[in-house]
Amino acid sequence: MGASGHEASLRVMSLHALEYCERLFYLEEVEEIRVADARVFAGRTLHEEIDKEEADGPSQRFVLESETLGLHGEVDAMRRRDGRWLPYEHKRGRSRREGDEHASAWPSDRLQIGAYAMLLEEASSESIPEGRLRYHADNVTVRVPIDEALRADVRAAIVRARELRAHIERPPVTSNERLCGRCSLAPVCLPEEERLAKDETHEATRLVSKDDDRQALHVMTHGARVGRSAEELVVTSREGDESRVPSRRTRHVVVHGGAQITTQALHLCAERDVGVSWVTTGGRFIGSMSAAGPMVQRRVRQYRALSDEAFALGLARRLVAAKLEGQLRFVLRATRGEGERHADVDRAIASMRRGVQRAQETATIEELLGYEGEGAAAFDMETLAW
Q1: Which of 96, 141, 147, 198 is the most exposed place for a label (fewest CB within 10 A)?
Q2: Cα 197 to Cα 202, 203, 291, 310, distances in angstroms
Q3: Beta bridge partners of 288
Q4: CA-CA distance, 45 to 144, in Å (whole number)?
Q5: Pseudo-torsion of CA 319, 324, 326, 330, nearest 10°?
Q6: Given the DSSP bridges, would you call strands 140-145 and 215-219 parallel, antiparallel or unpaired?
Q7: pTM, rounded to two decimals
Q8: pLDDT at 375
Q9: List of long-range contacts for 135-141, beta carbons under 8 Å, 24+ apart
């Protein structure tokens, strides 16, 4: 058994994420949430172009793994220089510069190339003197010495990564807000929301552009079918009429009542991280599908929070009050402009208003259930004389 014990091997890319932001590492490697945004796709395209048009001599790509380090990964390129192997990594962005200083490697890139060098040393039984990082945005190659300081940083990062994998709680949001604007997982991490929750004076910055906003697709017609055509969701009615919706513009598909969705459409939704939910004609939730990975840590946090009676009561108060307020608003809108309301309607409205107020002040779950029941009875359309 190696130094990593029975723990699963870490990806070298996970150390890159760890150095960038511990919360990013946790979301990707522990909760297995990964989002491919425009930057990720641009990086993949760059590597495909490099594979086709390599101009700096022949290169070899290898998958490297070490049981001793508990690491594995695929280095972009490996070349022989002066009789020794050197690992190369290609980066789409710019190198790090401070003032008029020469180009240098970003800390996360430095750690990544150091990890590849240590894997290569173990695989080849040769000493690796340096690694090289090619930054394509400013056409610069940075040489990174593989010294004892870098090796120590890599080992420390591995230890920290294992510590985080053993935690149930997510690490806090980074204090460096500039990192969030370039992070593909910002829509999942919700850093601005967490900062706002802690500091009401904090000015929120939009992290997701309006072009990335996606809509929910509700399929409510009985007998309608959701199918797939290339990258589009195709909704076909029983009469044969079609409506096409691009999957990239869809956040969630809600299938109501007797509507259906094909296996091919489900595959597309899973590939594009589009959630799917099924509800009855009356709106009762049946089940849902999500393309996200295991959420064990999230479930543990949820159950732990709900086992706290004070927290559970506070959450229940907000839910019931919101439900009663929604019913009240509906009745007020429905009876607006009808002149004098029927006495039964006025009594129902007064009852729902009392329910909203009492739900926010109740001291027990039992009382709260009673107020919710009273509100439901008042909302019952059979008791309202329209």
Answers
A1: 198
A2: 9, 12, 28, 19
A3: 277
A4: 25
A5: 170
A6: unpaired
A7: 0.59
A8: 83
A9: 135/91, 135/93, 135/94, 135/95, 135/103, 136/46, 136/90, 136/91, 136/92, 136/93, 137/92, 137/93, 137/94, 138/94, 138/95, 138/103, 140/94, 140/95, 140/103
